[in-house]
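Open question from group meeting: does this chain pack into something compact, or does most of it stay loose? Before anyone orders reagents, we agreed to write out a predicted structure and look at it together. Recording both the input and the output here so the notebook holds the full record.
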Amino acid sequence: MSIEITWLGHSTFLINTGKHKLLVDPFLDDNPAAPIKSGDVKCDFILITHGHGDHMADAVKIAQRTGAPLICNYEISLWLAKQGVANAIGMNHGGAITQPFGKVKMTIAHHSSVLPDGTYGGNPAGYLLTLDGAKIYIAGDTALFGDMQLYGRDGLDLAIIPIGDFYTMGPDDSIEAIKLLKPKRVAPCHYNTWPPIAQDAKKWADMVRKQTSATPETPEPGGKFSI
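Structure tokens returned:
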């Protein structure tokens, strides 16, 4: 069974395994690129990479409305509990858990993490998802780092990586990341939401095809692709 990936703008993705829907970094209501609002999204699980508002602004309201368990770092889980979220699973780098949709492992990311009210948001992270029939790496907001080679050593069906530059790695470093990860497919994120992170997705996709073995996926916000 194929897995359907929907890009909802910025770094928000909906991963539909056919049995479960995983919402990554919910930022919809104040996201100028989002095709839907937080009240429209349906999900069974929520994953948060770090505490910045452009990655978790709508997490509380979606979790409370849907009852979806929320996977994040330990510090964010404590903060969410104070906001009335009943089922936040707090992890840390290198840890892994098995959930109904498969296995999720928290990986490192080189970035920062501050919660919407200014309190400490713990360490930023990425995720390695082992699903039924696919392995997906979600880099989160990060710079390029050499350990990406380790994350790709067992094979990746998809890598989701930032390309916006300024706050994260940009197009050139993303190509180096793809060379380390060696995914079958790669999707960009964290770009074109605001002018400081504007990028040409077509130009980036051409770079991917010419310099790596990966197939680029560059849907418009609301667009889908399958793996």
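Observations to bring back to the group:
Residues 171-181 form the longest helix (11 residues).
Residues 4-222 form a domain with the Metallo-beta-lactamase; Chain A fold (CATH 3.60.15.10).
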